[in-house]
Amino acid sequence: MTQTTPLTVAVVGATGVVGQTMVRVLVEREFPIAELRLLASGRSAGRTVDVRGETIEIQEAVGDTFDGVDIALFSAGADTSKELAPQAVARGATVIDNSAAWRMDPKVPLVVSQVNPDDLAWHEGIIANPNCSTMQLTPVLMALRDAVGLERVVVDTYQSVSGTGAEAIAELEGQIRAHVAGQPKQAGVYPHPIAFNALPEIDVFLDNGYTKEEWKLVTESRKILHLPDLRISCTAVRVPVFVSHSEAVHVETAEPLSPERARELFAGIDGVVVNDDPATHSYPLATTAAGRDEIFVGRVRQDPSIPDGRGIAFWVVSDNLRKGAATNAVELAETLLERGWVRARSRRAPAGAPA
Ligand SMILES: NC(=O)c1ccc[n+]([C@@H]2O[C@H](COP(=O)([O-])OP(=O)(O)OC[C@H]3O[C@@H](n4cnc5c(N)ncnc54)[C@H](OP(=O)(O)O)[C@@H]3O)[C@@H](O)[C@H]2O)c1
Questions:
Q1: How far apart are the first and last CA of the chain?
Q2: What local confidence, expressed as pLDDT, does residue 353 receive?
Q3: What is the structure's pLDDT at 352?
């Protein structure tokens, strides 16, 4: 990153699974921070957290806590974002929001760092970080869009419980313990036990029969890829995995594409790693992707159900807390800094104007 004046950065939802990962990623990537404000609900106010050897007290997120903040990373649910993000922007902060609150607002850029960073240019204070399942999918779809064109995409997800948050992680652990002890498995966060199960229900059901999670992947992918008419469908499934989402992807391309060429295209995308050697049982796994920032692709093969060599099938895995949430948010903050776009477009001096 280029040398720059350190900023005042706030993390909203700092006690949550994603918020804690955001703080970790900011530190790991040495984001230039003069002051780090950790915000959460009133329940956590007064608790302390050690960051880089400094003890920081958690504050309750209210309008005033954004005074003097340059960049606020929000990860405290859509209701909190709807209420507090405009208040933060009114105080001069730029918000990178991890919830679904603003993603489909046409006035808000929805950005994956290696897919559509130029969309950051027109932000007016709020930038949306995509849903975790969409995040890991769009860089690989971009590679196919640019090389051979996309006709149709079908995605089935296998999503980890950390995608739901801290309570769901505890629920899976509790059900595993109950199973070992021969006791009944109590379900609270999900409508059925998640341990030793696969639940085809993520977020609420919509009138069209899809779940909201499935529909997020459809609509967000179209917006990020600038393909408003992309034919894309999804089944989203929660599985008893702690971290990392996996996806089986079937794509019909406009032009023929061999698996060898597809692997080359995927490997050429920044932050994408191809791991594909059936002979050694080598393919992306949730357990090996966890803790990493890359998107892993494997099991690349021709889909014979589509004629003329225009069908390609593959498997995509990524850490939903890192690239799927925190890492992309920090990458967006880095891009804003590098390109001089931290301030909202209407508050920026025009390019070439005297400072
Ligand atoms: N987990 C993922 O993979 C993932 C990926 C993409 C997006 N997201 C989104 O990220 C957000 C947080 O997810 P999570 O998994 O980190 O959830 P989580 O572990 O349940 O944490 C929720 C966080 O939000 C805070 N919070 C709740 N109500 C608040 C309020 N009224 N004011 C301020 N802070 C409040 C909580 O603070 P307290 O501790 O004080 O209650 C906590 O820090 C959600 O919008 C989720 O959809 C998650």
A1: 22
A2: 63
A3: 62
Low-confidence ranges of the chain (pLDDT < 70): 1-3, 351-355
Q: Could you tell me the maximum CA-CA distance found in the chain, to the nearest angstrom?
A: 72
Distance from C-alpha of 9 to C-alpha of 285, rounded to nearest angstrom: 34
The beta-strand segments (E) located in 228-275 are 231-238, 245-253, 272-274
Q: Whose CA is nearest to atom 26 of ligand 1?
A: 76
316 alpha carbon – ligand 1 mean position (Å): 25
Q: For strand 126-128 and strand 94-97, is the pairing parallel, antiparallel, or unpaired?
A: parallel
Q: How many residues does the chain have?
A: 355
Residue 20: both structure tokens together: 């804690």
Q: What is the pLDDT of residues 66-85, one digit of tens each?
A: 999 999 999 999 999 999 99
In DSSP terms, 248 is beta-bridged to 156, 315
- Which DSSP symbol is given to 91? T
Contacts 24+ apart (CB under 8 A), 84-88: 84/12, 85/126, 86/126, 87/63, 88/10, 88/63
**pLDDT attached to residue 350:** 74
Query: Angle CA(274)–CA(20)–CA(138) in degrees, nearest 5?
Result: 30
- Cα-Cα-Cα-Cα torsion 226, 232, 238, 241, nearest 10 degrees, comes to -60
Contact 165 CB / ligand 1 (< 6 Å) = yes
By the 10 Å C-beta count (0-12 exposed, 13-18 middle, 19+ buried), 234 is classed as buried
User: 259-267 and 132-148 helices cross at what angle (nearest 10)?
Assistant: 120
Residue 77: CB within 6 Å of ligand 1?
yes
**Residue 4: predicted pLDDT:** 72
Per-residue pLDDT, 234:
98
132 in catalytic set: yes
Ligand 1 pocket check for 13: Cβ under 6 Å? yes
Amino acid (1-letter code) at residue 84: L
Q: Is 215 exposed, middle or buried (0-12, 13-18, 19+ CB in 10 A)?
A: middle
Q: What token pair was written down for 143?
A: 């590679």
Known catalytic residue at 245: yes
pLDDT at 202: 98
Question: How far does the centroid of ligand 1 lie from the alpha carbon of residue 71, in Å?
Answer: 18
